[in-house]
């Protein structure tokens, strides 16, 4: 049937996302995307648009996939347990052998100066959503509003640093130590 896609769009987006995640935006060519997805260049352009448009779709896909997991982690239980579960989502992703090390959003944020404005803005929005998730989870505690904001900023920064550190080969035990220190700081603040 003419016009019917002969491929699974979700599978192609996943393959493109992993390619961008592994190599980065600048070091991924349309030919690399063609090899990763199994589509020819014209099919990529016809279906997804240019490289920027495809990258934005991949960022959105990544943010939704892991954002849902973060939302679930932060939804239940006391704040200390919720924040620990939040970090567990990241540590599980880092330990997953089926995905590249690091974080596509953190990687994008680090290259913001060389990206187009739409991609840079999307990465910034994703980081903002992460802080907002944390802020919401912490707002039900007895912490002052300024402390809630400070912890949300801190936890978001720690979370992004875990991705960078994992990409540099930091061990899982060391990454766990980083999260434990942050969670323990929250526990102490809540006891005061």
From TrEMBL:
<feature type="domain" description="HTH tetR-type">
    <location>
        <begin position="6"/>
        <end position="66"/>
    </location>
</feature>
<dbReference type="InterPro" id="IPR001647">
    <property type="entry name" value="HTH_TetR"/>
</dbReference>
<protein>
    <submittedName>
        <fullName>TetR/AcrR family transcriptional regulator</fullName>
    </submittedName>
</protein>
<dbReference type="InterPro" id="IPR011075">
    <property type="entry name" value="TetR_C"/>
</dbReference>
<dbReference type="InterPro" id="IPR036271">
    <property type="entry name" value="Tet_transcr_reg_TetR-rel_C_sf"/>
</dbReference>
<keyword id="KW-0804">Transcription</keyword>
<keyword id="KW-0238">DNA-binding</keyword>
<feature type="DNA-binding region" description="H-T-H motif">
    <location>
        <begin position="29"/>
        <end position="48"/>
    </location>
</feature>
<dbReference type="GO" id="GO:0003677">
    <property type="term" value="F:DNA binding"/>
</dbReference>
<keyword id="KW-0805">Transcription regulation</keyword>
<dbReference type="InterPro" id="IPR009057">
    <property type="entry name" value="Homeodomain-like_sf"/>
</dbReference>
<dbReference type="Pfam" id="PF00440">
    <property type="entry name" value="TetR_N"/>
</dbReference>
<dbReference type="Pfam" id="PF16925">
    <property type="entry name" value="TetR_C_13"/>
</dbReference>
């Amino acid at each position: 049937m003419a016009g019917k896609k002969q491929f699974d769009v979700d599978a192609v987006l996943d393959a493109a996302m992993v390619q961008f995640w592994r190599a980065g935006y600048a070091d991924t060519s349309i030919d690399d995307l063609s090899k990763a997805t199994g589509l020819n260049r014209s099919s990529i352009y016809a279906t997804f648009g240019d490289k920027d448009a495809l990258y934005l779709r991949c960022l959105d896909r990544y943010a939704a996939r892991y954002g849902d997991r973060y939302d679930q982690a932060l939804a239940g239980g006391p704040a200390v347990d919720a924040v620990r579960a939040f970090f567990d989502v990241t540590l599980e992703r880092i330990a997953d052998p089926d995905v590249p090390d690091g974080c596509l959003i953190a990687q994008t944020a680090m290259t913001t100066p060389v990206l187009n404005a739409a991609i840079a803005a999307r990465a910034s929005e994703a980081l903002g959503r992460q802080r907002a998730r944390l802020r919401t989870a912490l707002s039900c505690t007895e912490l002052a509003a300024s402390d809630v904001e400070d912890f949300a900023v801190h936890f978001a920064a720690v979370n992004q640093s875990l991705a960078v550190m994992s990409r540099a080969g930091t061990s899982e035990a060391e990454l766990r130590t980083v999260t434990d220190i942050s969670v323990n700081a929250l526990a102490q603040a809540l006891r005061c």
